[in-house]
Protein backbone atom coordinates (compact mmCIF):
# COMPACT_ATOMS: atom_id res chain seq x y z
CA UNK A 1 0.00 0.00 0.00
CA UNK A 2 1.31 3.47 -0.78
CA UNK A 3 2.56 5.52 2.16
CA UNK A 4 3.64 8.65 0.28
CA UNK A 5 0.22 10.31 0.62
CA UNK A 6 0.29 13.95 1.72
CA UNK A 7 0.20 14.32 5.54
CA UNK A 8 -3.09 16.23 5.59
CA UNK A 9 -4.83 13.59 3.47
CA UNK A 10 -3.48 10.78 5.67
CA UNK A 11 -4.59 12.57 8.85
CA UNK A 12 -8.09 13.04 7.46
CA UNK A 13 -8.22 9.46 6.22
CA UNK A 14 -7.10 8.09 9.59
CA UNK A 15 -9.41 10.38 11.61
CA UNK A 16 -12.40 9.46 9.45
CA UNK A 17 -11.56 5.76 9.83
CA UNK A 18 -11.32 6.12 13.62
CA UNK A 19 -14.68 7.91 13.67
CA UNK A 20 -16.34 5.11 11.70
CA UNK A 21 -14.94 2.53 14.15
CA UNK A 22 -16.09 4.56 17.15
CA UNK A 23 -19.60 4.93 15.77
CA UNK A 24 -19.93 1.35 14.59
CA UNK A 25 -18.05 -0.64 17.25
CA UNK A 26 -17.39 1.72 20.18
CA UNK A 27 -14.22 2.88 21.92
CA UNK A 28 -13.13 -0.64 22.93
CA UNK A 29 -12.61 -1.56 19.27
CA UNK A 30 -10.36 1.40 18.54
CA UNK A 31 -6.77 0.22 18.05
CA UNK A 32 -4.03 1.43 15.73
CA UNK A 33 -4.37 -1.76 13.69
CA UNK A 34 -8.15 -1.33 13.40
CA UNK A 35 -7.72 2.29 12.29
CA UNK A 36 -5.15 1.53 9.60
CA UNK A 37 -7.21 -1.44 8.34
CA UNK A 38 -10.36 0.72 8.22
CA UNK A 39 -8.44 3.51 6.44
CA UNK A 40 -6.95 0.95 4.03
CA UNK A 41 -3.38 2.11 4.61
CA UNK A 42 -0.22 0.28 5.63
CA UNK A 43 0.05 -0.56 9.34
CA UNK A 44 3.03 1.77 9.89
CA UNK A 45 1.35 4.86 8.42
CA UNK A 46 -0.28 5.92 11.68
CA UNK A 47 2.99 5.73 13.61
CA UNK A 48 4.81 7.53 10.81
CA UNK A 49 2.63 10.61 11.34
CA UNK A 50 1.93 10.39 15.08
CA UNK A 51 4.33 9.67 17.95
CA UNK A 52 2.05 7.00 19.38
CA UNK A 53 -1.58 5.92 19.46
CA UNK A 54 -2.58 8.24 22.32
CA UNK A 55 -1.03 11.13 20.38
CA UNK A 56 -3.20 10.14 17.42
CA UNK A 57 -6.30 9.94 19.62
CA UNK A 58 -5.58 13.36 21.17
CA UNK A 59 -5.32 14.90 17.70
CA UNK A 60 -8.55 13.12 16.70
CA UNK A 61 -10.42 14.58 19.68
CA UNK A 62 -9.07 18.09 19.04
CA UNK A 63 -9.98 17.81 15.35
CA UNK A 64 -13.54 16.81 16.23
CA UNK A 65 -13.77 19.71 18.71
CA UNK A 66 -12.73 22.05 15.89
CA UNK A 67 -15.42 20.57 13.65
CA UNK A 68 -18.05 21.20 16.34
CA UNK A 69 -17.28 24.91 16.76
CA UNK A 70 -18.99 26.21 13.58
CA UNK A 71 -22.33 24.72 14.68
CA UNK A 72 -22.18 26.50 18.02
CA UNK A 73 -20.94 29.69 16.37
CA UNK A 74 -24.04 29.53 14.17
CA UNK A 75 -26.13 28.99 17.30
CA UNK A 76 -24.61 32.10 18.89
CA UNK A 77 -25.36 34.09 15.75
CA UNK A 78 -28.98 32.84 15.86
CA UNK A 79 -29.59 34.64 19.17
CA UNK A 80 -32.81 36.59 18.96
CA UNK A 81 -34.30 34.38 16.26
CA UNK A 82 -36.52 31.33 16.52
CA UNK A 83 -37.35 29.69 19.82
CA UNK A 84 -34.57 29.48 22.44
CA UNK A 85 -35.47 25.90 23.44
CA UNK A 86 -35.79 24.89 19.79
CA UNK A 87 -32.40 26.38 18.94
CA UNK A 88 -30.73 24.62 21.86
CA UNK A 89 -32.50 21.32 21.12
CA UNK A 90 -31.29 21.38 17.53
CA UNK A 91 -27.68 22.18 18.49
CA UNK A 92 -27.51 19.52 21.22
CA UNK A 93 -29.15 16.87 19.02
CA UNK A 94 -26.55 17.57 16.35
CA UNK A 95 -23.72 17.47 18.90
CA UNK A 96 -24.72 14.19 20.54
CA UNK A 97 -25.88 12.64 17.28
CA UNK A 98 -22.28 12.91 16.08
CA UNK A 99 -19.13 11.10 17.09
CA UNK A 100 -19.05 13.18 20.31
CA UNK A 101 -21.14 10.61 22.16
CA UNK A 102 -18.53 7.92 21.36
CA UNK A 103 -15.52 10.15 22.07
CA UNK A 104 -16.62 10.95 25.62
CA UNK A 105 -16.25 7.35 26.89
CA UNK A 106 -13.00 7.03 24.93
CA UNK A 107 -11.55 9.98 26.88
CA UNK A 108 -12.90 8.61 30.14
CA UNK A 109 -11.44 5.15 29.45
CA UNK A 110 -7.87 6.17 28.51
CA UNK A 111 -5.79 7.83 31.23
CA UNK A 112 -2.91 8.71 28.89
CA UNK A 113 -5.31 10.34 26.43
CA UNK A 114 -6.81 12.49 29.20
CA UNK A 115 -3.30 13.51 30.26
CA UNK A 116 -2.44 14.55 26.68
CA UNK A 117 -5.67 16.49 26.32
CA UNK A 118 -5.01 18.39 29.58
CA UNK A 119 -2.26 20.22 27.69
CA UNK A 120 -4.97 21.75 25.48
CA UNK A 121 -8.04 21.71 27.72
CA UNK A 122 -6.98 22.02 31.39
CA UNK A 123 -10.34 21.05 32.90
CA UNK A 124 -13.28 18.90 31.95
CA UNK A 125 -13.81 16.65 28.95
CA UNK A 126 -12.71 18.55 25.80
CA UNK A 127 -15.83 18.19 23.68
CA UNK A 128 -18.16 18.89 26.60
CA UNK A 129 -16.04 21.74 27.96
CA UNK A 130 -15.93 23.51 24.60
CA UNK A 131 -19.62 22.88 23.94
CA UNK A 132 -20.46 24.20 27.42
CA UNK A 133 -18.52 27.42 26.84
CA UNK A 134 -20.13 27.97 23.44
CA UNK A 135 -23.63 27.10 24.67
CA UNK A 136 -23.22 29.50 27.62
CA UNK A 137 -22.24 32.25 25.16
CA UNK A 138 -25.45 31.66 23.21
CA UNK A 139 -27.56 31.65 26.38
CA UNK A 140 -25.84 34.86 27.54
CA UNK A 141 -26.73 36.50 24.23
CA UNK A 142 -30.35 35.41 24.64
CA UNK A 143 -30.32 36.73 28.23
CA UNK A 144 -28.95 40.07 27.01
CA UNK A 145 -31.80 40.21 24.47
CA UNK A 146 -34.35 39.63 27.26
CA UNK A 147 -35.32 36.16 26.05
CA UNK A 148 -33.99 34.62 29.29
CA UNK A 149 -34.33 36.03 32.81
CA UNK A 150 -31.74 38.71 33.68
CA UNK A 151 -30.46 36.61 36.59
CA UNK A 152 -30.21 33.34 34.59
CA UNK A 153 -26.91 31.61 35.35
CA UNK A 154 -25.95 30.64 31.81
CA UNK A 155 -23.00 28.45 32.88
CA UNK A 156 -25.17 26.33 35.17
CA UNK A 157 -27.85 26.13 32.48
CA UNK A 158 -25.31 25.10 29.83
CA UNK A 159 -23.84 22.37 32.05
CA UNK A 160 -27.27 21.05 33.00
CA UNK A 161 -28.41 21.05 29.38
CA UNK A 162 -25.28 19.20 28.24
CA UNK A 163 -25.46 16.64 31.05
CA UNK A 164 -29.16 15.94 30.65
CA UNK A 165 -28.98 15.65 26.88
CA UNK A 166 -25.88 13.48 27.03
CA UNK A 167 -27.76 11.02 29.23
CA UNK A 168 -30.46 10.74 26.57
CA UNK A 169 -27.89 9.85 23.89
CA UNK A 170 -25.40 7.87 26.02
CA UNK A 171 -26.67 4.39 25.11
CA UNK A 172 -25.05 3.95 21.71
CA UNK A 173 -26.67 0.53 21.23
CA UNK A 174 -30.23 1.67 21.94
CA UNK A 175 -32.48 3.76 19.74
CA UNK A 176 -31.77 7.45 19.42
CA UNK A 177 -34.00 9.58 21.62
CA UNK A 178 -37.05 11.04 19.96
CA UNK A 179 -36.76 14.77 19.13
CA UNK A 180 -39.70 15.41 21.45
CA UNK A 181 -37.81 13.84 24.39
CA UNK A 182 -34.77 16.04 23.75
CA UNK A 183 -36.97 19.12 23.43
CA UNK A 184 -38.80 18.25 26.66
CA UNK A 185 -35.49 17.93 28.54
CA UNK A 186 -34.32 21.30 27.18
CA UNK A 187 -37.59 23.11 27.94
CA UNK A 188 -37.63 21.67 31.45
CA UNK A 189 -34.11 22.96 32.17
CA UNK A 190 -34.88 26.37 30.66
CA UNK A 191 -38.26 26.73 32.40
CA UNK A 192 -36.78 28.41 35.45
CA UNK A 193 -34.85 30.85 33.28
CA UNK A 194 -37.82 32.29 31.45
CA UNK A 195 -38.17 36.05 31.78
CA UNK A 196 -41.01 37.17 34.05
UniProtKB/TrEMBL annotation:
DNA-binding residues: 31-50
InterPro entries per record: Homeodomain-like_sf, HTH-type_TetR-like_transc_reg, HTH_TetR
Organism, scientific name: Amycolatopsis sacchari
Keyword Transcription regulation: yes
Gene3D superfamilies cross-referenced by the UniProt entry: Tetracycline Repressor, domain 2
Keywords associated with the record: DNA-binding, Transcription, Transcription regulation
Key word Transcription regulation present: yes
Protein name: DNA-binding transcriptional regulator, AcrR family
Domain HTH tetR-type: residue ranges: 8-68
GO molecular function list: DNA-binding transcription factor activity; transcription cis-regulatory region binding
